[in-house]
Design brief:
The complex is a heterotrimer of chains A (330), B (295) and C (414).
Chain A (H helix, E strand, L loop, with lengths): L2 H16 L7 H47 L17 H6 L3 H33 L5 H10 L5 H11 L7 H8 L11 H29 L3 H9 L4 H29 L3 H6 L11 H11 L3 H33 L1
Helix pairs in contact in A: 2-13, 4-8, 4-10, 4-12, 5-8, 8-10, 10-13, 12-13
Chain B lengths: L2 H11 L6 H24 L1 H9 L4 H6 L11 H9 L2 H32 L3 H15 L2 H14 L6 H8 L3 H13 L3 H9 L4 H12 L1 H17 L2 H6 L8 H7 L8 H27 L4 H4 L2
Chain C lengths: L1 H27 L8 E7 L3 H14 L3 E7 L3 H10 L6 E4 L4 H6 L17 H6 L1 E2 L2 E2 L5 E4 L1 E5 H6 L9 H13 L5 E2 L8 H14 L14 H4 L1 H7 L1 H4 L12 H9 L5 E4 L4 H7 L3 E4 L12 E5 L2 E4 L5 H14 L2 H9 L3 E2 L13 H8 L4 E2 L1 H4 L3 H17 L4 H15 L1
Parallel strand pairs in C: 1-2, 1-3, 8-9, 11-14
Antiparallel strand pairs in C: 3-12, 4-5, 6-11, 6-13, 7-9, 7-10
Helix pairs in contact in C: 8-10, 18-19
The chains are: A mainly alpha (330), B mainly alpha (295), C alpha/beta (414).
């Protein structure tokens, strides 16, 4: 009964070892096709059963609340009383009258883009380094991963202490050791923005390096051996073997980073509370502020709807580009 | 199978007679180790900062932030264990994490399997729709979700919290389906020819093959669920149902924060996650079967 | 065989689901057991601060159990629960949410309850609408200048001046002596001095404060401009570092207890920290903006306890019992010992020596002012003034821009 499975396994193994795909015999192939056709409808049904749980999750936890938000965005819902009225597009007109929302949008985009770039640029070499051999490798791997373990909300509070603009702040007292003057870390708008992005990079780099590490280890070792024989330098190997093989990993990682970055909330909220001024204010903070602080849940919902659409466009476009790149490499 | 580790061992094993070239190589290895470890330690300062300050008094912490305590004290830990029902909170966290993650990963894996089982307009449409779940900002759907759970009587129950965490299934699905696509479909076809049902194929062939990505996903979701504050904070109102992370935030007052106690509970709350990670580390990054099945 | 395995898996899933359900149920079951009443109490103070009251109340009322909850994002969490039909039985009503809670009918009218008899008028006024009182506030708070006696002595001064010019002169003196004169927490706690000044201005003009929130067009930014202008002298004259923009209340405390700053703005809630620190500290009124004005303080009645309008019967009885308990001698003494300035009639608050001055002159007389108490949309106002003040201190906007920006925010939120 298991013979076919076994033969398939050996066939695949053989393929990976010789890197010369040997297709199945003609007999087997036509057999597949016949069965496939007959199975078409049945497959649709089995697929459906397997997809049912996630569809339920999607409908209950995402679609219905999103529709609800869409409905709220056309009402004067104040977030307290369910007695609301239809108000048309008023809330959508109101969304951008709030100047802080625009500032929040700007920082959110800067944050998402920069965190994606920095983390990708640092995590890949880090993963390559951690994949190589050196003493204390397991320790280093664990440490980098540990940075991503505590939640952002906790890390924000701790880093706030570290980046305190006072002389006694951790970074400033360290600079003081070298006779360098204190820097106004969280008091200067640009420095505060830098601090938020720095902490984001620090906290997530380990997890993304781990992700890349997993992909690195799936690169067949013989590719490197072959390249070494051909006299390729380490650099050339990195550019021509490692990077192309990492493309699926980059697609996944940048998708998660971009999407997570656009929806960032915890970190700027605990580290800077959106300040100084509105320099580290985010769209999600604006959604909360309008919906709850200003009792204009309708306006908050309208912003949420627009923002969801915008995020979808950005993330899907990014996916499209990434996929077309990855297809070129395969 | 896991060729990298084997090759490393064989190389380091040959250190009997060192040629000048090998010596240079060794020196480079040492330099690299020192540099990497130094960077690691610098990056780890915030973690050190959290841990070392739990052994200090408030006054000691304010005057001496990074150094060893002037006088080691376990008072913070004693206080934490005396004032907070830590065991109860751990049990709560454990329940929601275990069930939350198990269901998330199961639903995600099953969905990924259903997705690759058949490529049709129907499944591609579902794939696209599922991506929508990613872009919805959680802040926007909090009130509708709360109202829904309230109507279902799930608010302020651990089961209700687990239901909320099921949303993570979409993330699991996303990572798993990417991995599954790189698997050879012939294996499944072959099993099907042998007459194995789709469930059997899933359990005995697909699951073992995707174990590496499953582990990664489980670890990641465990961290996320264990650490969750926002959802638990809204949905749990009874003190005896509080998760451990809610206890951490209890030390953050409305006006001022009790730093040593905040950090102590943070350490207590995260310790199990660290242990969990150390235990799983072997599976997370090494021994990935991927290399052998991927062309 | 395959069916067997699948069935086993399905069974396992169902069983584990049932387990979660049963665990959840066991967490919930105590709400109705044995004729005991469970009262849900959602507070904005954390458990450590509330525990003593809850324990004592349960001891005095063995047939009532309190299910306590609190949250760092109190207003938001309460809102979600209210609109999700999960109102706690007893909760806190305060400046940020009082208008919404009252106008949407979430809180019970307490005007004629027996436990409201001794509550002071100022505290009643704080949570009233149309002559009906919706909360029980038992204390008030007022901020002031916490100063380091030893550092002030170094420049030959032993008390904080009573006028702003005197204060600025003292700052200059301290600065010249190489001592950081003054710091404030503009990262999370702006407007302490400005509100005090504005309170003094309004008192001099004799403005009826209750009319402020009824004004058709609200211009808090423009209204408070004079006060801001005087306060900005701290920065215009270079007496205080503009880095206060990134400083939190916690930062200030650290600096002060470390003896690194002579004066900060703070209040009674941090007195225990100062006591423990061993610093020789004093607490003084905020100086008057000009000669001839009274020394006002930034302050307000404290957040009040409210009863949900949705409960009745045994639960309502229990809730009333709880509020009665919260203004009993025992509770008031506990609050007073904890640093709260109790204002209930017939109770003599025994405040620490350092607090006596501010307590007698500001708290008891009601000479305090909090901008957000007297304008509509308090939540918008407090975030707007915070962000705009930070930019003002940074020097990125002018005072005029500050005023127009704040007023614009308020106009948008109407």
């Amino acid at each position: 009964m298991m013979t076919h499975v076994m033969s398939a396994v050996t066939r695949i193994k053989g393929r990976s070892e010789t890197s010369d795909p040997t297709p199945g015999t003609v007999d087997e192939k036509s057999l597949y096709k016949k069965r496939k056709r007959r199975q078409g409808l049945r497959d649709d049904l089995t697929s459906f059963w397997f997809l049912l749980p996630i569809l339920a999750v999607f409908v209950i936890l995402f679609a219905v609340p999103l529709v609800q938000t869409l409905i709220y965005s056309f009402t004067d819902f104040n977030g307290y009383s369910m007695n609301m009225h239809y108000v048309g597009w008023v809330n959508y007109q109101k969304v951008f009258t709030d100047s802080s929302t625009l500032q929040g949008l700007i920082f959110t985009v800067i944050y998402a883009v920069l965190q994606t770039i920095f983390i990708t640029v640092i995590a890949i070499p880090l993963a390559v380094t951690l994949n190589g051999k050196f003493f204390g490798r397991n320790f280093a791997r664990s440490m980098f991963f540990f940075f991503s373990v505590p939640s952002m909300a906790i890390l924000g509070l701790v880093w706030r202490y570290i980046f305190s603009p006072m002389k006694t702040g951790l970074v400033n007292s360290f600079l003081g050791l070298f006779g360098i003057d204190s820097l106004p870390w969280l008091s200067n708008s640009h420095l505060a923005q830098g601090c938020v992005i720095f902490v984001a990079v620090w906290a997530q780099i380990g997890w993304h390096a781990t992700l890349y590490l997993a992909f690195l280890q799936s690169i067949p070792h013989d590719l490197y051996e072959q390249a070494t024989v051909d006299g390729a330098s380490k650099r050339q190997q990195f550019v021509h073997i490692t990077l192309p093989q990492l493309v699926p990993g980059i697609v996944t990682s940048t998708f998660l980073l971009m999407n997570g970055g656009l929806k960032v909330y915890d970190l700027p909220f605990t580290l800077t509370k959106g300040g100084p001024g509105y320099s580290t204010y985010t769209v999600t903070q604006s959604i909360i502020q309008q919906g709850i602080g200003q009792s204009q849940y309708g306006v908050g919902s309208a912003l949420a709807v627009l923002f969801t659409l915008a995020t979808a466009v950005v993330v899907f476009a990014q996916m499209g580009v990434a996929n077309s790149i990855s297809r070129r490499f395969q | 199978m896991s060729s990298p580790t084997i090759s490393i061992k064989s190389e380091t094993g040959e250190k009997r007679a060192l040629s000048p070239m090998q010596k240079a190589k060794r020196r480079r290895l040492i330099v690299k180790s020192v540099v990497v470890l130094a960077i690691t330690l610098i990056c780890a300062i915030p973690l050190w900062y959290i841990v070392i300050n739990t052994f200090k008094t408030t006054g000691d912490m304010q005057t001496n932030q990074l150094g060893f305590p002037k006088k080691w004290t376990l008072a913070n830990y004693k206080d934490a264990f005396e004032n907070i029902p830590i065991l109860r909170s751990f049990v709560n966290t454990l329940i929601v994490t275990v069930f939350g993650v198990a269901f998330q990963v199961l639903i995600g894996a099953v969905a990924a399997y259903g997705m690759i089982l058949r490529k049709s307009v129907f499944t591609s449409a579902i794939g696209a729709i599922l991506l929508v779940a990613f872009v919805v900002p959680g802040q926007a759907t909090l009130i509708p979700l709360y109202q829904m759970e309230s109507k279902a009587g799930l608010v302020n129950t651990l089961a209700g919290l687990v239901v909320m965490y099921l949303g993570g299934a979409v993330f699991c699905y996303f990572l798993i389906v990417g991995y599954m696509r790189s698997l050879p479909f012939e294996l499944i076809e072959a099993a099907r020819i042998d007459g194995a049902g789709p469930f059997r194929i899933f359990w005995s062939i697909v699951i073992p093959l995707i174990r590496p990505i499953l582990t990664t996903v489980v670890v990641f979701q465990t961290m996320g669920t264990w650490n969750d504050f926002m959802t638990a904070n809204i949905f749990i109102s009874s003190s005896n149902l509080r998760t451990i992370v809610l206890q951490v935030y209890n030390a953050v007052g409305q006006f001022s924060t009790d730093w040593p106690s905040f950090m102590t509970i943070t350490v207590i709350a995260l310790l199990p996650v660290f242990i969990f990670f150390i235990l799983c580390q072997k599976w997370i990054v090494s021994g990935l079967v991927a290399g052998s099945v991927k062309g | 065989m395959s069916i067997g395995k699948a069935a086993k898996a399905a069974l396992a899933i169902i069983a584990s689901g049932a387990m979660v359900a049963s665990m959840a149920a066991c967490g919930n079951s105590d709400s109705a057991s044995g004729g005991k009443v469970t009262l849900t109490y959602f507070s904005w103070n954390n458990e450590e601060a509330s525990k003593a009251y809850v324990n004592e109340f349960e001891k005095e009322n063995p047939d009532i159990t309190i299910d306590f909850g609190s949250s760092t994002s109190y207003v938001q969490t309460l809102q979600t629960r209210l609109v999700g039909n999960q109102a706690p039985d007893v909760f806190i009503i305060t400046s940020e949410n009082k208008a919404d809670l009252i106008s949407n009918g979430y809180v019970k009218d307490l005007t004629n309850e027996s436990f409201m008899k001794n509550i002071s008028d100022a505290n009643k006024e704080f949570v009233s609408k149309d002559n009906k009182v919706y909360g029980m506030s038992t204390s008030s708070w007022a901020s002031g200048i916490v100063y380091n006696k030893d550092l002030l002595k170094k420049v030959g001064v032993d008390s904080v001046p009573t006028t702003w010019d005197g204060f600025l002169a003292l700052c200059k003196k301290l600065k010249a002596a190489g001592i950081t004169p003054y710091l404030e927490a503009n990262a999370d706690d702006t407007r302490r001095i400005q509100d005090a000044f504005y309170g003094g201005i309004l008192a001099k003009k004799g403005t009826d404060l209750t009319k402020l929130s009824e004004a058709k067009t609200q211009t808090p930014g423009t209204d408070e401009k004079t006060a801001y202008k005087a306060w900005m002298k701290l920065y215009d004259q270079g007496l205080v570092t503009r880095d206060t923009v990134g400083m939190t209340g916690d930062d200030l405390k650290t600096q002060f207890t470390g003896g690194q700053v002579a004066m900060i703005t703070d209040g009674a809630w941090d007195f225990s920290t100062f006591k423990e620190s061993g610093v020789n500290w004093g607490f003084s009124q905020i100086p008057a903006m000009e000669e001839g004005m009274e020394q006002y303080s930034q302050g307000s009645p404290s957040p009040a306890w409210a009863i949900s309008s949705k409960i009745s019967g045994a639960k309502l009885k229990a809730a009333e019992k709880f509020l009665t308990f919260m203004q009993s001698k025992w509770s008031l003494k506990e609050q007073s010992d904890g640093g709260d300035a109790v204002t209930v009639k017939g109770f003599n608050s025994n405040v620490v020596d350092q607090y006596k001055n501010v307590y007698e002159k500001n708290v008891k007389t009601g000479k305090y002012f909090l901008l957000t108490n007297f304008y509509s949309k308090p939540s918008v106002l407090s975030t707007a003034t915070q962000s705009e003040t930070q930019q003002l201190v940074q020097g990125s906007i002018t005072l005029d821009q500050f005023a127009t920006n704040v007023d614009k925010k308020i106009a948008e939120a109407q």
